[in-house]
Amino acid sequence: MLRSETASAAQPAQNQIPGSIPSSAIQQARFPDGFLWGTATAAYQVEGAWNEDGKGESIWDRFTHTIGKVKGNTTGDVACDQYHLYPQDIALMKRLNQKSYRFSISWPRIQPTGTGTPNQKGLDHYKRLTDTLHEAGIRPFCTIYHWDLPQALEDHGGWPNRDLAGYYADYAGILAKHLGDRITIWAPFNMPWSFTYMGYGVGAVPPGRANFGDFLKAAHTVSLAQAQALRSIKAASSKATVGSAYGMAPAYPKTDSEADRAAADRYHAMNNVFFLEATMHGRYPKAFVGEPPYELMGFRPGDEKIMLAPLDWVGFHYYNRRIVSDAKPERAGGGSFSGTEIEQSSTARDPYTRFIAAMPAEGPLSEAGLEIWPRGIYDLVTRISREYEHPIIEITESGCSYLDGPYERENGRIPDTRRIEFFREELAELARAIADGARVRSFHAWSLLDNFEWANGFTERYGLIHVDYRDQKRTIKDSGHWYGKVAAANRLDV
Ligand code: FCB
Predict the structure, then answer these.
(1) Using CA atoms, how far apart are residues 80 and 454, in angstroms rounded to an integer?
(2) How far apart are CA 143 and CA 411, in angstroms?
(3) pLDDT at 47 > cutoff 70
């Protein structure tokens, strides 16, 4: 039975499934005319063609080619082969009434070693991709960096090396110059906290370093890079608008104590708005106990001016929430991570932010082990609206992993009821935030199709479309058909 159907029974659903949304809210939900229904992917997760047409090696190529790093010993060498199959994928988007496609550009396709003359074949690929999207009436939404740093730049010190801000701004300027006639929506970084913290702070993803100072330096370089890129994009393309694709999780204090409430605020500052505050106001938010450790960050006088570059709109993802508590200094250190940054540690992560952030399991868990909490998107969207003077908001990702595959007895149909349920309840909460005044103009489901889920390889399936990796066959899941109807109707009871 669907979770929301449970809601119409005599017992309110909330008593049965914590966090569940009543079916009346789903029936009433409406989205504005022109709302941009979309899906999202990332280059390394879908493109394949890892060494074709002059592409250089990325840190993800290096990582996945190292035995022992990825579940199932798989790589993104072929992934969904979207590099070649994009016309077919765009035809499927059109069939599902999609209006926006958030994809990322692979930096080492454009500059194989991260600097210097652009590779024409790489640029041509993205010209063809975006032309095909326009022909299908779909807005190309470009993420400039979704984690696949050219390996040569990691060999120069990676993101903790401040020089990368300049190299990155050059790369962004090249994209705007050559693709700015086709792309007007640019998001510099996907989840900057995640790739700096998990890549340099704890070493769960490439380049696999575990040093808090390296994380702080990487984060500061990324702040500078974000603003420098905004300026170089706008200098090269007058039509460009620049926003973000931050990962965010609403934070709730574990208890009502002042210490836990302050810890939840530090979580929000560090994990949700660190880069947003940097670009909007040229300063870092109160993420630390005491002053930010400027020296450790490599902060120089005048940097507050460099990192200031107000965004045209604010984009962020929502997957799940955190329950946050204060940590005693002696419990600092450690923290283990997997997938979409599930934190499974009872210790605080560092002596500076000094909080413990746990993912609760009060609501049901998806097959990736993430708690489903539809209300989180309402709390997050309304909080960001309040704190940043009601910006235009793009929801850049949200989704869930369930392993449903083709059912032979029903001619290969894929009845992924739990995914429909997930989106219905979450989108009802998003509609409520819009009804309460939030200026949300898009929603991008993660993902268009099943793909290579980073260190979890092919063990998770987030797609609205199923991919059989043996022959690249695409099959629209029931959730995909449902999402297509929602996109046409701007309502959820379809
Ligand atoms: C997000 C990432 C995206 C994908 C989803 C499941 O954290 O941005 O690439 O892995 O999680």
Answers:
(1) 13
(2) 37
(3) yes
